[in-house]
Amino acid sequence: MDAGLLLLADSRLPAGAHAHSGGLEPAASAGAVTDVAGLTGFLRGRLATTGLVTAALAAAACAGGSGGWVRLDREADARTPSPAQRQASRAQGRSLLRAVRTAWPNAGLEALSAVAEAGPHHPIVLGATTAVAGGGPGEAAAIAAYGAVTGPASAAVRLLGLDPLAVHRALAGLAPHIDAVAVRAAGYATGDPADLPAASAPLLDLYAELHLHADLRLFES
Amino acid sequence: MTRRYAAHAGVSAELGPDGRTRLTRLRSDGPLALRETPDALYLVGAAAGPLGGDELTLDLEVGPGARLAVRSAASTLALPGAGESRLTVRAWVGAGGCLDFAPEPTVAAAGSRHRALAGIDLAEGAALRWREELILGRHGEQPGRHTGRLDVTVGGVPLLRHELCLDEEAAVRSGAVLGGATAVGSVLLAGPGLPVPRAHAGDGLAVLPLAGPGVLVTALAADSATLRRRLDEGEALARQAETGSAAGAGAVSSR
Fold this sequence. Notes:
The complex is a heterodimer of chains A (221) and B (255). With 221 residues, chain A is mainly α. Chain A is built from nine helices and no strands. Chain A has helices spanning 3-9, 24-29, 36-64, 69-78, 83-103, 122-132, 137-160, 164-186, 202-212. In chain A, α3 (36-64) packs antiparallel against α4, α6 packs across α7 (137-160) and α7 runs antiparallel to α8. The relative contact order of chain A is 0.24. Chain B has a domain at 7-174. In chain B, strands 3, 4, 6, 7, 9, 10, 12, 15, 16, 17 and 18 form an eleven-stranded mixed β-sheet that branches. Chain B has a seven-stranded mixed β-sheet with strand order 2-1-5-8-11-13-14, with no helix packed on it. Chain B has 255 residues and is mainly beta. Chain B has helices at residues 169-172, 224-240; strands at 6-15, 21-27, 32-36, 41-45, 55-62, 67-72, 76-78, 85-93, 98-101, 106-108, 113-122, 127-135, 145-154, 157-165, 183-190, 200-202, 205-209, 214-221. Chain B starts with 5 loop residues before the first strand and ends in a 15-residue tail after the last helix. Chains A and B meet through α3, α4, α5 and α9 of A and β14, α1, β17 and β18 of B. Chain B: This is Urease accessory protein UreD. Chain B: UreD, UreF and UreG form a complex that acts as a GTP-hydrolysis-dependent molecular chaperone, activating the urease apoprotein by helping to assemble the nickel containing metallocenter of UreC. The UreE protein probably delivers the nickel.
């Protein structure tokens, strides 16, 4: 394993990921996730939808180079009907871009800041950076799919007071599914961006909007 | 042994010199039977199904300035058969044209394997209302496999790419995707003159202003009647913000 890619996948990378729960906080507030079994299901659902879509976008951004980033950013918009989720994705994209420009200074990444006024979507930055850090579309997809699951899992430990060991047992059980999603996502990397997966999660969309108007919240999304 | 259909139906709507829309092409084929009525073009089920193995295509062309409303006489019941069934709807809407597509729900019966694909190309200045409702199985039964995908572009730019896949039960039934809902649906409103409405989320309902010129209403429910009521409510909320707009999807009849 390449240490540079491990750094990119690490939740300790100061890219603001800790401020987002991937919809877990509103799901917990709504009572949809209360225990490890509910969390495991939530993570399976998130992985099969948002996880697959963002992994495929990251893989495509990694494979295609800067010429395709604007198109991929629009494709990300079209796959994110929830305004709250678009906002969260661009906020995380901006934070990640700030971190990687310092950590992996590279002229090739400068075009990212011009992709969209509000900052590029997170998977576009992740895919572009994976290429700079020496990885390919498979690694970009793997890091995206892994992050789609581990972010909400650690948020669940904080929000619901779940046993971290039990949560990690659940994550270990999900590992083969994460790998399978990453492999599937990477398969779209060099195709027509229109054909990228677009799996939706109606409850995640609903929770994202509810969360924006919640009175008390620990996470931004 | 089951029968299989490979059917290709199509309709073209054009604006006549008198300012009224006329259907210049109306081609029914196999189970896709089309009937023109004063208020809408109706899809009339001429055969049960779709059954596994059926390959059905419906083309809808709406010329510049023309209006077309499409409804169905009854629900679509996806049934098992020899392999996967597929319904592809392709639509093109010219500038100033308007397509209002709102058939009755699709029911994914136990054991069915159905794929519903819709690809819509809107010219700049075209309007669209597109409703989809999916019922997960008949009363008390486990649903079959179903994948629905909607792709909409405006002037070649992607507006919405939205897929719902029921293949992986653990994911579908989770608190992230559908939870315990047995009915799911959406209404897309797109076109000019749509001021950006405010996002809204409530009981099984979300009103989502898109990044491009459109709003997606999505709803979840325990039955089809509640689903329809929520979609109607969401559509009304989406249209509230449209008050004062003279043209576009806001002018499309909601019935």
